[in-house]
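Practice problem: Transcription antitermination factor NusB
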Amino acid sequence: MTDSSVPPGGHRSGRGPRRQDSRKRRSGPPRGRQGPARPPSGDPAREAALDTLRAVREDAAYANLTLPKLLRERRITGRDAALATDLAYGACRAQGLLDTVLTACCDRPLADLDGVVLDALRLGAQQLLRTRIPPHAAVSAVVELVRARAGSRPTGFVNAVLRRVAERDEAAWVDRLAPPDDLGRLALAHAHPRWIAEVFARALGGTEELAAALAADDARPAVHLAARPGEISAEELAAITGGEESPYSPYGVLLTEGGDPGDLAPVREGLAVVQDEGSQLVALVAARAPVEGSDTRWLDLCAGPGGKAVMLGALAVIEGATLDAVDRAPHRARLVEQATEGLGVRVHTGDAREVALPEEAYDRVLVDAPCTGLGALRRRPEARWRRQPEDVAELTELQRSLLRAALGHTRPGGVVTYATCSPHPEETTAVVTAVAEETGAELLDTPALLPEVPDTVAVDGPGVQLWPHRHGTDAMYAAVLRKR
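Answer key — structure tokens:
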């Protein structure tokens, strides 16, 4: 899945984010004032981080969309922007771990606390356990934020709880509070729900790599750029941006410095896009898969917001092919149009399973299916605490129907690349195997299409599985089927 707000193809599936209703809280310190984000005060970084946590908790917002907007509106830059980013994303990413520690330090259920107090405690615990900010400074700063938002009355409570948190470091708290089994301990130590750790272990074929996988997933990800094929090379893009060429994608560049990548000239001018190297490799699989016969009609069936469509559109121009792109949501279809401007991509709005298309059948099709997004948790800080195991069944039903539709849009001898941003076996190998058996499609040797990338073979079925700890990419999955 390529976007955390609306899945590719515009199919909003699975259960929505869980929201805490502060009106149901019955006790705890007096409620702080809720409502619109406050303007920055003498501590703009923590103000912005706190407002981001509030939006995530109260409005089911996405941190990676909320915080950048606040930083722009308040003109927060430099070290303050970096601090706000570390605190807001870090607190969202580690929420389960932080809440476990706070529960041990608090004399009442967290659900009974006023929203501003809960957000402030999480912000404080993040600083105390997962940053190098001196404990006294961290506690003092958070107490002053609470004073400004909710008055003096709850400050004593917040101060007392955070001082208890500060009595141990993160490792000591994990030693004290972790479940007795190895998997449960690893899940808590690396701030993942247990069920997601279990999914990772299954996809990895055991627990040998689990600690490394969870640690990489808990780390702040690097920013990758993709050079538009035919317009600029990765070497040129790296020289312009000061980045490094990616190890696997011939079009990828790894940014080595901070800042907003949208401010870079090649991105502004449409010569490059911000795109994880794993997504670039999926687009390459779709373009490299061997087709029997003609190869001039390409289709991106779940195209929004357009990252892979840019890559495929540019490669289609080079190969003398045309690309059609589909998305169900009109606003996402517009994003695809904007992203692929100048590439001759024909964008269509409609349900990928029913949309009328100009070609009767395509030579190659990409279906980047809506999924749980478990492969991109490091980029979507709050997502790991919103998804639930029961979300998977509804999504896999949609994934199977989209893959069947993709085969329906493909001519005999043509190929379909199925991709998800998830390593969950139910969303990956199980979907591909079931549809191949049902339709008679031939499963191709997908790892052979990425000979430059090591250790990509999916453990329990066909396809390639990328991992942050192995490849430095999101945990993307791809498999290729040929229509008989």
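Discussion: Residues 191 and 271 are 37 Å apart (CA to CA). Students who identified this feature from the tokens alone can consider the problem solved.
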